[in-house]
Structures are given as structure tokens and as C-alpha cells.
Amino acid sequence: MSESVSQDPNRELRWYDYLTLNIYWLGLNISAGTITPVLLPYLVARFVPPEQKNSYLATARVAGLAVAMLVQPMAGLLSDRNTSRWGRRRPYIFAGTLLDLVFLLVIGASPLFLGAPSDSFLQSALGFNTAYGVLLVGIVLLQFSSNLAQGATQGLIPDLVPEDHRGRASGVKAMMELAPAFLAVFIGPLVDTGRTWVAVGLVMASLFLTMLVTVLFVREEPLREPPSAPLAGPVLRLVALTAVFVGVTQGAVYLVRSSGTWLAGLEAGVGQQVALVGLTGLVGMAGSILLGVYFGAWVGIGPEARQRTSFIWWVVNRLLFLAAVGSVEGFALYFLADVLHIPNAATMTTVLLAVVGVFLLTFALLGGVLSDRVGRKRPLFLAGLIGAAGTFGLLLSTSFPHVLISGCVIGVGAGVFMATSWALGTDLAPSEAAGKYLGISNLAGAGAGIVGAGIGGPLADFFNGLRPGLGYQVIFAIYGALFLFSSLSLSRVREGR
User: Fold this and answer.
1) Of 16, 85, 143, 230, which has the highest C-beta tally within 10 A?
2) Does residue 10 carry a pLDDT above 60?
3) What is the domain extent for residue 266?
4) 431: which residues sit within 8 A by CB, 6+ positions away?
């Protein structure tokens, strides 16, 4: 068992402290890397009509991520005030993981409800069958429990790592987040052959084991007295934050769908529809990010937000980048199946993620060390440009090797971003309220899926209806633009507290 990780800012951390502080991110990302790009798209495609699968996938992701947006900062806020003798963060990690195991069983059981007697009622009342309904419930509950643990986990680095070592600690964190790309190679064939229970079991085991390491080996200083500030105000602000962001983004979804319906009524040509609806989608995504984060973060932070504008713009930068990279990953399986007509799309998706993972890991470690030397903004600016170049390359891809090359370019940018961005966020968040602030940063984590998939899914189905495969070209072009916008947004961020 390692010695305790002291909160003394002058203490030099040992190599195993970096690992034990970040090991739970491995479990969280094995879960996310299995469910989001592979298991969830596979199950949705089994349960819904093929021409609507992108929209149903978007619905499942948006519903779960809306819950995540509320729960994660709430868990961060509550763990900031936790006086347990086990420390502020670990009790939430323990409880959240145990709930994860239960809700993963719900997801794994969803195929058992195909052809259930309740199908006709649910189809007429809600527009989906029982199996999709069970899957949707499982995803929402899993987001609740997973973000209960993740909101607390985010406080470990600012709690226990001196500021001048956070780039390295964030590099190790990024390594734990990106390593599951290699493990996913074993998940794809399981899913392609219908052995979803084995995939779910692997996720359960990874979460449980990494939780045990965290609980047993990380040492926190117990909080002697909770903060004296009232709790009701911050809680209400977080609820309002979620409502504001989800309301803004769903307004953008309505705008995109209405523009498509309007143009279809005018019998506009394909080129006109691509230009106008595609531009509406880009404005909807970028606009909802700017407005949603701006108003949401100000509501969530409260009166001190005026002094935290750099932190708010950091969230904007993070959301623009993550909306792009996460959505490219999320729609990769359908892109390989529908555009390149690859029969074992789940397997090849995980192969793609594994190859890209080599570049992610390498450049995450380099990016973390580099950001401690040259600052955070310059690597982040470059990461956005590289991500855009790789995404635009996908538009020209006609074979799986071409997709691999483009994916590796995106991986370089994402690797630099993953380590450097989090280091910048821990610099900008006030140490006495790190859990609350880094929980609010889940506007970027959860918001990325709400914006990217929530708007991108209906867009993809709309354009695929005009011409097979066109939808993925349109949304990938939009995601490339979001990478560029992420670089531009850094002009409003000042490094340092």
C-alpha cells in the first residue's frame, strides 16, 4: 500500500501516487469506451427502424447526458463539503460504482425484452418498443451513478497534486482515459457476435477493480468542518444550469429539424438543403455551445462568475473540442457500416479506436509534460487545428485505411488536448471549490454529447434520407469546423488563477 499522498504543495509525488490517483479513470473510460461507440449503437440498431437509428441513438445519449450534467457537478459540490473520515471523494466513488454494477445489468438485459407484450402500447404511446425503453432507462440510471463517482474523482488532482506537477498528473489521467482504446479490440468481436453479456461483464469488472484500488490506496486528509456557506443556493444554481443548457441545445435541435422540414416543403434541391440545413446545424451547435455555456456557467457558479471568465471560456473551448471528437467517435460504427459497407462494423470500430489510441497515448504524455514547460494555451491551439485536419480528411475517405490515417491525425490532436486541457482547468478552478468548478466543467463532458449527437443524429438521418451516406459527410464537416472554433476560443482565456 502506498504512503499517503499529502496535500503539502511542496511534497514531491512518487510515481505510484500518479497511478493510484488516476486509476479510476481507467474503469470509467473502459465503461464509456465500450458503451458509447460500440454497445449502445449496436443495441439501438437492433431495437429501432434502420432509417431512424441516428435519431434514436441521439435521444438515448441526450437523455443520459442531461442527467450527467446535473449529477456530476452536484457530486463535486457535495464531496467538497464531505466530512467523512474516509476523505471527501472516496465515499462517492465507492457508492457510485456499486450502483453502476446494478444499472449495467439493466442495460445487458435489454435484448431480452424484444417482442415483449408491452411493445404495442409503448410504440403507440412513446414511439419505441420495450427493449429500447429498458435500454433508455438503463443508460439514464448508469449516467446517474457513474457521474456520482466521477464528480468526486475530479477533485483528487486539485486536492492532492501541487500546481507545478498537474500537467504530469493530467498526462497520467489522460493515459488512463485513453488506454481503454486498446482493450476495446476485444469488445468489438463480442458485440458483433451478439455476446453482449460478456462485454457488460468486462465493464463491471473494470469499474469494481479500479474502484477498489482508489479506495484502498489513495489517502485523503478528512475535512474537519464543512464549509459554512449555505448549500441550497448552489444546488438550485446547478439545477438551473442544467435546465438552461438543455433548453438552449434542444431549441437548436428544433431549429435544425424545422429548417429541414421547411426546405423539403419548398422542394429545394439537395445542394441547397446541404448548404442551408448544414449551415443551420453548424450555427445550432456552435451557438448552443456559446449560449449554453455562457448562461449555464454563470448560473452555476453564481456571483463570483464575473471573476472567473477565463474558466468559463475554458469550458467553451473544452466543449467545442469534445463535441467534435466525441461525435466523430460516436457515429464511427454507423459510418463504417453505411458508407464503407464493412460487415463487421463493431469489430472494425474497435480496431480503429485501438490504432488511434497509440497516437492518443503518446501525445497525451508528451502534451502533459510540454504544457508544464511552455504553458497550456499553445498546445491546445495546435490540438484544435490538428483535429480539424483529421476530420476534414474523413470526408475524402473511401476505404478503411484512409479512415485509419484520418483517425490517427485526430488522435494526435486529441492526445495533446486531453492532457493539456485538464491541466489548464485545474489551474483555473479555485482550490477551495475544485469539486464544484470541475463538476461544472461537465457542461463540456456531458454537453459534448448533447450538442454533437443531439443535433448531429437528426441531421445525419435527414441527409441520409436524401442520399445514402450524405448525412455523415455533412456532420463530419460541421465537427471539423467545431475543432477550428475551439482554437479561436482560447483568445479569451488567460492562464493562471
Assistant:
1) 143
2) no
3) 15-222+231-492
4) 158
